[in-house]
Design goal:
With about 700 residues, the protein is α+β, with helices and mostly antiparallel strands. It contains 13 helices and 40 strands.
Length: about 700
């Protein structure tokens, strides 16, 4: 009996070491031979049990946003079970969210080489690797687009939805406004093509609506080709007023087609019947017209598309096939594209530093400096009459085909073939069996996909459909953001104390207690100066900063600390760096620029540069801005700093919150529960698989 008791002691020791878990239990996640090995009495190894404990802690730390902690836990788990591929997968995910994509790829590739993960893991590796290769300006160069889907004029029941679409205007929530020339309507469609709103125009209705633009005020303008007028609507599509009249005198219009707005709010209209461009102020009062024959210029013959970029007005002519350049006062500057370049050009829209023009069955981008062309879209050999092409919020080009009665959604070929990048970023099972997921949906170029609805997702657990699935919310609809102000405490920035105070106060007021405001000072070491409601910083004083001015500012450590605090913040968040735009020596000793931008991007945090002095910022600051969703502002800009807050809130976010009820057995909270999510829109889809633990019982 004594010998038998002695033999049992190691078993009891293992049970105690596992925190009360059975020596015969298994979490269901591990599949390696060493994890599944059993002793002669059917007990698993101590290494397997210890690995399960560390793995569980790692998963929980990951979902808390404590990625460094999760890395440590997964490394420990891997030390017990070096060949367990699911640990490698999770370790890669933790490194990815920490911004160390090289290490993430290394672990994923090793697991994939062992036959783990299948095409899903291979696709993730390919996307992350391609993003690292194509980071920066390469993503903004003109590329070919192919059809990813379309919205047709008749629905599945053959009911007419719209006829002869002439112009489309995307919205930041993934929806779009569409002009139906044939039915005299302005429609609003969601991402799935369902009609949300309809407007027939003013009291007498539209009279062949042709073009649609959004003014800087947020109002919409519609040109009415047969009505010889321009109609104005608010941002929700409600009619405000009309202006213009039939005729050739000042303010007269004959067959107005396309429109553009300059930086002063003036409205330029291609007045086809009068062979000119008519200009109105923001209220619709006529100012002047131009385009008639002058010395050195034969005059416009059939003006159609019009766009404005850097105070230059570009006008396409459908009769000459040329694109002409004018200044905003109407003075002729010369040709951008010579006559007969285009066959029958229609709309002309600005796209970054390029112009997008429709020409019969093709869409081209035009370099505004050289006039060089790049063919972006071809509708094929079928009869087509493309009238409008504009980029949407999701990285596509929306193209109206007047003849085929369709709106094409054109995407990059790599996006159509490769699909969406879907990531289950967080699982909350605190209220089990109710489970809540945070799912991030992007395209392969890191652009957020917004506008998805409940029917664009499909959730399964262990490959079986879940019950009581619900879309709880979408971050793109959020009207608030958490903002961290990162104040540069360098000796050069310290000279701008008054400007700094004004900037902090103005941003705090603009936030209007929407979200949380943090203030961090970046010196030799970063220091948290304030955290709370924005109203608490409206009396900010630069002299009260606890961090003294320094000849050395560890900006990398400060950015990292700010980002750490925003991981579990609002789904829209940003770091606003406030300084003179210059960095001190060794400002990025600990973390490189690539790792910092990756950390920000992989956790949906924007970096914004707010300059206290005029002039160009250093290349490091410029890199952080250009490679995240942020922008650059000057403290004394004419429009004030409230636009900075608005721009942060308007940053697209592809994070969705989904919930469902689980039917899986938890084994008292010990079992790893698999969950899968697929997102799909038109001909594209993406999928992710992960797992979680229910609370211990």
């Amino acid at each position: 009996m004594i010998s038998q008791i002695k033999k049992c002691k190691p078993v009891f020791a293992i049970i105690l070491l596992f925190g009360g878990l059975s020596a015969f239990a298994q979490n269901g996640a591990f599949s390696s031979d060493e994890a599944l090995a059993r002793s002669s009495i059917g007990a698993r190894s101590a290494a397997s049990g210890l690995a399960e404990q560390e793995f569980r802690r790692g998963v929980q730390a990951y979902y808390r946003g404590a990625f460094n902690d999760s890395i440590l836990e997964f490394e420990k788990a891997l030390s017990y079970l070096p060949s367990e591929n699911i640990i490698l997968d999770w370790l890669g995910k933790a490194y990815y969210r920490s911004g160390v994509e090289g290490a993430a790829l290394e672990h994923w590739q090793y697991a994939a080489g062992e036959g783990y993960g299948g095409i899903l893991l291979q696709n993730r590796i390919e996307i992350v690797r391609d993003r690292r290769i194509l980071a920066g300006s390469a993503l903004n160069k003109p590329v070919r687009y192919t059809e990813a889907g379309s919205y047709t004029g008749r629905n599945s029941e053959n009911i007419l939805v719209f006829s002869q679409p002439s112009s489309v205007l995307p919205n930041n929530d993934g929806s779009m406004w569409l002009l139906s020339y044939g039915t005299n309507e302005l429609l609003k469609l969601d991402l799935n093509g369902l009609v949300i709103e309809r407007s027939g125009g003013n009291f007498n209705g539209f009279d062949r609506p042709m073009d649609l633009i959004r003014l800087s005020s947020g109002n919409l303008l519609v040109s009415e080709f047969a009505g010889d007028r321009i109609s104005m609507f608010d941002s929700k599509g409600s009619f405000i007023k009309s202006f213009g009249k039939k005729g050739a005198s000042l303010g007269g219009l004959v067959g107005p087609q396309y429109m553009a707005e300059d930086s002063d709010g003036n409205i330029y209209v291609s007045d086809f019947g009068n062979s000119r461009v008519s200009v109105f102020d923001s209220e619709g009062n006529p100012l002047f017209f131009f385009g008639n024959k002058t010395d050195g210029f034969s005059g416009l013959k059939g003006p159609t598309g019009i766009a404005i970029y850097e105070n230059t007005v570009f006008v396409a002519d459908c009769l000459t096939g040329a694109v002409y350049r004018f200044d905003v006062s109407g003075n002729y500057l010369g040709l951008l594209c010579k006559p007969k370049t285009f066959k029958k050009p229609e709309s002309l829209k600005r796209w970054g530093s390029y112009l997008v023009i429709c020409d019969k069955n093709k869409v081209y981008s035009i370099d505004t400096d050289t006039g060089a062309l790049f063919e972006n879209v071809s509708a094929g050999n079928a009869p087509s009459h493309l009238t409008s092409a504009v980029p949407d919020i999701n990285g596509n080009i929306l193209v109206t085909d007047f003849s085929s009665n369709e709106v094409y959604v054109m995407a990059k070929l790599s996006e159509v073939v490769g699909g969406l990048f879907v990531q289950i970023e967080r699982v909350n099972s605190d209220s089990f069996p109710k489970v809540t997921l945070e799912v991030k949906v992007e395209n392969r170029s890191r652009q957020s996909i917004v506008g998805l609805k409940e029917n664009n997702f499909f959730i399964t657990e262990n490959k079986s459909p879940v019950i009581n699935y619900k879309l709880e919310g979408a971050a793109y609809a959020n009207e608030q953001a958490d903002i961290t102000l990162l104040i540069d405490r360098s000796l050069s920035s310290d000279k701008y104390g008054e400007s700094l105070e004004n900037a902090v106060k103005e941003i705090a007021s603009a936030m209007a207690d929407r979200g949380v405001l943090r203030i961090v000072s970046a010196g030799n070491l970063p220091l948290i100066e304030y955290e709370g409601a924005p109203s608490g910083a409206r009396n900010f004083k630069a002299s009260k900063l606890k961090n003294p001015p320094s000849s050395k500012v560890a900006l990398d450590v400060a950015v990292r600390m700010c980002a750490n605090a925003l991981i579990n913040a609002a789904k829209k968040s940003a770091i606003v760096y406030i300084g003179d735009g210059h960095v001190t020596q060794n400002a990025f000793d600990k973390y490189g620029l690539t790792d910092l931008t990756t950390y920000l991007n992989n956790n949906s945090i924007a970096f914004v540069n707010l300059l206290l002095s005029q002039g160009a910022c250093d290349s490091e600051i410029d890199y952080l801005c250009k490679n995240t969703e942020g922008g650059e502002y000057y403290v004394y800009r004419d429009s004030g700093l409230s636009v900075l807050v608005d721009d942060i809130i308007d940053i697209p976010s592809g994070i969705y919150v989904l919930s469902y009820e689980s039917n899986l057995s938890t084994d008292f909270g010990q079992r790893y529960l698999p969950v899968e999510t697929e997102a799909f829109i038109m001909n594209r889809s993406g999928r992710d698989e992960t797992g979680y633990f229910a609370p211990l019982q």
